[in-house]
Design a protein that fits this description.
The complex is a heterodimer. Chain A is an all-alpha fold. Chain A contains two helices and no strands. The relative contact order of chain A is 0.14. Chain B is elongated and about 225 Å long. Classes of the chains: A mainly alpha, B mainly alpha.
């Protein structure tokens, strides 16, 4: 996720955009997967839905962490970039 | 219980065949181990020893193998060194030489032995053949003569020689007795006294025999005697004739010898005369030749003399020519010198004239030169003035373009400025050149990217700052270390609860700085101070404000450059006044 040609004051807002969209998508996916699984495999129990939604939320959270702080990922290296107008 | 017993039996039955299978049979062949191991060791040692010795020998003789040997074989190098020392040791060398000598001697002896053996064989073969031949002869076998000649046996055919004495016993053998008195043979007398005597003796004998009454004997005697004496006489006569012949021959020979001698003498005298004649002739020829040579020499001498004369005359001519040339050259030199003097004198005259009458022309030319200089200076100053004006205009244009706002590119104006301020004229004096250089340096320091994209105007920056400040406020509470998304969320929420400061507030925290920057921008239009304030932020807020700061910096840069250039241009144009 390269922030190229983004004015620096909008950095955080761009990140927030990505994070929020990530959250929505992943949680939604988890929810739908849970509903399907519970309907087909788990005899209409409620706990698969909760699990999968939680999982989606967790993945989104991890991604958000990475988006906000790329240096937290082990093995990440930063290069000096020429200043772009 | 029965069931358990049965099961136990069953398990036992199962385990027994396994035990049976592991029994050893005595009829199996036991492999003898000890003997074969010893043999193997012996053979291996022998082969390795041979290989080692062979490798050492090869290493001694073959250069390429030597290196491989020393590298791979353990103890090889030491062994080779030991062998080399032994080879160079004197004692060992002597021993080796002795051994070689002995070998050679043995060879020679063997050769001689072979020869002797051959010879012995030949002789035995010969002896054997000899023995076989004698045996064959003795036993009377028919052999060819060619086969026996080689034997050379002791059996030459003995011939019966006719000997007079052989008949002696048989003269009076089988004498026929007669009564008739034997006729006394008459013999012709020959010169030889002995034969005559013999004849006489025979006659006497016959007579005696006749007288004695042995007629038969007498007859026999007479016959025999006559026969013999006749024989003798004929022989004697033959001998005599032969002798005469021989004498005649010798006489003839003597005669021929005399003839030959005479002939030889004649021949020698002839030769003598011829030789003397030849000598005389040769002497004459020699004298003739001498005379001829003398005449030739005299002729040659004459010729050489003529040549000498010719050469001498040539040399003289040559020298004369050389002298003549020298003289003419000198003359020429003299002539040119005189000419030069003449020219010099003429020139002097002309100059004196010039000094007088032509000096005024000089004055005029001097004045003309002064005019020239003045006009050049005038042209230069005009040029400079023009340039200064151009520079001022260009700087103004640049300023207008840069601050037109909306990031308009001012590259063209910049290029124009660069070309104008290029140090071109070599007639510019020092200050001018310095001014131009200054402008050039500043113009070239404005990076091309900046020129291409233009700068933000002041108003744009101010509006942008409003945006930046809101964002910065939102991110103000994010800690620098150990931050996560949650801290971002907390910061956003908490910042909404914070108070906003305004005006020139003293303090080092983020809020104070932002307030001050805002004050500078809105109230005092001081971008520089505002930028300085913003530069002092830290962490995420700084990160967010980085772009704005960059734009502000660029703006300030261009502004500074433009100001300097404008002052420079104005200074330049004022200097022309």
């Amino acid at each position: 996720m390269v922030d190229s040609k983004v004015p620096s004051e909008d950095l955080l807002s761009h990140k927030w955009d990505r994070v929020i969209s990530n959250f929505v998508v992943k949680t939604g996916l988890g929810l739908s997967a849970g509903i399907v699984a519970s309907a087909l495999l788990f005899k209409k129990r409620s706990w698969p839905i909760a699990i999968t939604t939680g999982w989606g939320f967790g993945v989104a959270y991890a991604d958000a962490q990475r988006i906000f702080h790329p240096h937290h990922v082990p093995g990440v290296q930063f290069e000096k970039k020429k200043p772009v107008v | 219980m029965l069931a358990s017993a049965l099961t136990r039996a069953g398990t036992r039955a199962v385990s027994r065949p396994a035990a049976r299978a592991s029994r050893h049979y005595a009829t199996e062949v036991a492999k003898p181990k000890k003997g074969s191991l010893g043999k193997k060791i012996v053979w291996t040692t022998a082969l390795v020893g041979t290989a080692y010795a062979g490798a050492t020998y090869e290493a001694l003789n073959n250069e390429a193998f030597h290196d491989t040997y020393t590298t791979y074989v353990p103890g090889g190098e030491q062994l080779l060194d030991a062998i080399d020392d032994a080879m160079h040791d004197k004692q060992v060398k002597e021993n080796i030489e002795k051994a070689v000598a002995i070998k050679q001697k043995a060879q020679e002896y063997s050769v001689t032995l072979k020869n002797y053996a051959g010879k012995a064989k030949d002789t035995t073969m010969d002896l054997y053949e000899l023995a076989t031949d004698t045996v064959n002869q003795l036993t009377g076998n028919d052999q060819d003569d060619s086969q026996t000649t080689s034997a050379g046996g002791p059996a030459p055919t003995s011939r019966k020689t006719k000997r007079l004495g052989g008949r002696r016993g048989g003269i009076f053998a089988n004498v026929i007795e007669t009564d008739e008195a034997a006729v006394i043979p008459q013999f012709a007398t020959i010169g030889e006294s002995t034969i005559d005597e013999l004849a006489k003796t025979v006659q006497d004998l016959v007579k005696m025999l006749n007288d004695a009454g042995l007629k038969g004997h007498a007859k026999r005697m007479a016959d025999y005697g006559a026969y013999e004496i006749e024989r003798l006489q004929t022989e004697y006569r033959n001998a005599q004739t032969e002798q005469n012949q021989v004498l005649k021959d010798t006489v003839a020979l003597a005669q021929t010898a005399e003839d030959v001698e005479k002939h030889i003498q004649d021949h020698t005298s002839e030769i003598d005369t011829k030789v003397s004649a030849a000598r005389q002739r040769s002497r004459d020829r020699v004298i003739e030749k001498e005379n001829k040579l003398k005449s030739e020499f005299s002729v040659e001498a004459l010729e050489m003399q003529k040549e000498m004369n010719a050469i001498a005359t040539k040399e003289l001519n040559g020298q004369r020519n050389a002298f003549m040339n020298e003289l003419s050259a000198e003359l020429k030199e003299r002539a040119t010198e005189i000419q030069r003097q003449f020219v010099r004198e003429v020139r002097q005259q002309v100059e004196t004239e010039r000094g007088g009458r032509l000096s005024r022309v000089d004055e005029v030319s001097v004045r003309q030169r002064v005019f020239e200089k003045l006009s050049y200076a005038n042209a230069e100053s005009l040029d400079d003035a023009r340039k200064a004006h151009q520079l001022t205009i260009a700087v103004d244009a640049l300023g207008r373009a840069a601050y037109a706002g909306n990031q308009k590119a001012f590259l063209d104006e910049l290029q124009a400025l660069l070309t104008i301020s290029a140090p071109g004229s070599p007639f510019a004096d020092l200050t001018e050149r310095r001014n131009d250089e200054l402008v050039q340096v500043i113009a070239s320091n404005i990076s091309e990217t900046v020129a291409r994209h233009g700068v933000d105007s002041m108003a744009q920056l101010v509006t942008r700052f409003v945006n930046v400040s809101t964002e910065v406020r939102r991110a103000s509470l994010i800690p620098e270390e150990g931050s996560s998304m949650v801290s971002h969320v907390i910061s956003i929420i908490m910042s909404k609860l914070m108070f906003k400061k305004e005006g020139l507030v003293p303090g080092d925290d983020l809020e104070a700085r932002l307030a001050r920057a805002e004050y500078y921008l809105h109230k005092e239009n001081d971008l520089e101070s505002a930028a300085r304030e913003v530069n002092q932020l830290k962490g995420w807020p700084k990160h967010l404000a980085a772009d704005w700061l960059d734009a502000a910096r660029r703006h300030l840069e261009i502004k500074q450059a433009l100001e300097v250039m404008r002052t420079q241009a104005m200074l330049g144009s004022m200097q022309q006044l």
